[in-house]
Queue: 2 jobs
Job 1
Amino acid sequence: MEALLSLAFDNIAAKDTQKIRKGLRQIEGMLAQICLSGAKSKPATKPATPAHRRNQSAINLGEQQQSTPKKLGPLGEDPAFREFFRLQEGFEWNVATRVADCLNRLLGMTSSKDGHNDLLILSSLSNLQGLLLLHPPSRIIFGREVYMNVLLDLLDPYNCPAIQSAAVLVLVTALLATPPNTRMFEHMDGLLTVTSLFKDEETTQGVKVKLLEFLYFYLMPEAPVSSVSTPTTAIHHPRSPLDRRSSMASGDDNGGTTKKNIRPQEEKQHMLARYLNNVEALVEDLKESAPFTGVAC
């Protein structure tokens, strides 16, 4: 896995967009192998001839395309996932950081007329969302201004609706159960960025729906979470550099829970009201519908 990651890192760090595309596809393929279960082929009833082998290969390829996602529980016992999670605990092999850096470079490149650069940005965002879900401690990188600024830049009106929508999804994943990141989002005028795009007449309806969902998510009550992040698959592992950095950012280095950086719902409501009218109605609707039941913010 280290060899594959090393090759992918070299590719996404290149200036050649074809190499960047290749590197992003390599990362996507690795994540697909971790998260998808290949369909088991049926045993042959009789030995295959060379011609049959070629035909059988086509059948097997079709079966692989019909792979189904693995369940979260068994995923924790998967050797590939455990190895991936172990490698993510160190900065050298942390994929989320490399993809975020790649995304930052793509934003600095001149957009091509054929939209190829936009496709690379979308691929980076898709990979980044999956990485943050598979390895929650990696979310701590968005407690830094440089990485939070990348996500907010993607919410500028000049970006296409597909990029805006994908950026909102990654932003939700980056803030999920990580209050220090939410404080950085607020510090970087994230509320102004989101509400400005929401009120812009040229923003598409689909993007506005995503932004409204984000505001519901933002207004949810926050709860202290353990500074020692573990995956949802309940893998036990020692504290990593990412864990320790998360602890220092949240003001707790004892491996327990902390209430520092937690902001009351009423205070967040007041902050959002600076940029958006009728926030009280959003809060009431949130209480009645409870769209994110069981989600820690």
Note: The radius of gyration is 21 Å.
Job 2
Amino acid sequence: MKLKLFQVDAFAERVFEGNPAAVVPLPQWLDDDLLLRIAEENNLSETAFLVKSAAGYELRWFTPAAEVDLCGHATLAAAHVVFSHLGFDQDEVRFSSRSGELIVHRSEGGLMMDFPATRPTPVATPTAITEALGFEPNHVLLGYDHIVVLDNEQQVQSLVIDLTPLRQLDSRGVVVTAAGDQYDCVSRCFYPKLNVPEDPVTGSAHCQLAPYWAEQLQKSELNARQLSARGGTIRCVVKGERVQLYGRAVDYLIGTINL
């Protein structure tokens, strides 16, 4: 069996920016163990698998360690592949996923993803987070990640974190955030349980960050920056219980998987 493989830099204007994801279109679903082995072999933070459906595409995401419920940058990469390589001639594609229906539009300004919003709630600081940071933060919230709110952008940028304690948490990972200097908010995202020490640009994290910062800043449109080594910018628009994420994607590699 031969499968097409696309490696795409998401939330990027050119290669070597943003967050790389693999996208593998399938004729039908393969065994989950095989999908996980492909993701492990790709050795990227996410591999997206697509199967054509009557309404659009079924979409699943795998890290090298496990399947996840939602991944923003790999959804952006998957939509880029659908629009650019799979002969899809409409301006809106609908994906069915473990997080419900996800909609991606294309326009001259790039791709816009329409995702469900997650509104994190305050929680007591887990001991694992205090150990990982080396200090106790002022504010911790819980969505599907633990969200640690720091005082300023410099704290987020310079943070040195011990990833080992974070494996004890029952959430997906930890997002560290603060209000930005040039951007509305900044963040860094850590997912050691998924074998992703620090994710370069995380769309799904902004489904939690955007509602939080929209409330804090009293504005519905936000410019967010993820402060990883590769870095990436996401424009976020909060509309009720949905979040729109805007970004671009570019091809890095097109190849063939031999099974």
Note: The domain at 121-240 is CATH 3.10.310.10 (Diaminopimelate Epimerase; Chain A, domain 1).
